[in-house]
Sequence to fold (187 residues):
Amino acid sequence: MYDVIVIGGGPAGGSAALFTSKAGKKTLLIDNGKSVTKRAWLDNHYGADAISGPDLVEIGKKQAEKFGTEWVEKSVSDVQSVDGKHTVSTEDGESYDAQHVLLATGMLVNVAQHIGVEVIPGTEPRIKNIIKVDEQGKTNKEGIWAAGTVAGVSMHTIVTAGDGAKVAINIVSEINGERYVDHDMIK
Ligand SMILES: Cc1cc2nc3c(=O)[nH]c(=O)nc-3n(C[C@H](O)[C@H](O)[C@H](O)COP(=O)(O)OP(=O)(O)OC[C@H]3O[C@@H](n4cnc5c(N)ncnc54)[C@H](O)[C@@H]3O)c2cc1C
Fold:
């Protein structure tokens, strides 16, 4: 049983997994390798002085794995939710259980639509549909959250990564029953 399963390993999902695993939450990230960020060149990501999208995503993956995220390359086909437990199924027939599921599927809402998560028209350029979330990142289904492009934020890596972190902090806070903060000091 995972505390959190993140679906999507772009900046939003990778950043979320970094925060949840660093907070000690058992985290699985499932990604099928279709991040639009793999086509991007980034001259506007604060703190990273010109970096390719693939490099940003790869560094983010290593950061998340360093803190314990299990990162697997598969396609999610379904999420079944019963009594607070979510079972995430992949196209190869495997399934994984979690307390919380975070949808970070970029421009794709097919999984969300398939499992009954409410989808609304997008407002950002070239984004047709997004998942309806509240200010915390919660969808209409208990324990299912969304972050990044698929949750309607501006489609820039600094924003999507930040939104993934924001929603992850909200998930960790809900699990812990108090607001969570992750600050390290210079040693
Ligand atoms: C050509 C191009 C240039 C860009 N240039 C810039 C720029 O200069 N500066 C900037 O800030 N932004 C730029 N962007 C935008 C930036 O890449 C995105 O805004 C942002 O990174 C999206 O992050 P995300 O995590 O929401 O989505 P994505 O990076 O798309 O990640 C979503 C992930 O979900 C996975 N996924 C989806 N469905 C499933 C499923 N069923 N099962 C498993 N995995 C699934 C996909 O494989 C993907 O890895 C550019 C984008 C493009 C396309």
Observations:
- The chain has a mean pLDDT of 97.
- Residues 2-176 form a domain with the FAD/NAD(P)-binding domain fold (CATH 3.50.50.60).
- The chain has one domain: 2-176.
- The helical segments are 11-22, 53-66, 110-114, 157-176.
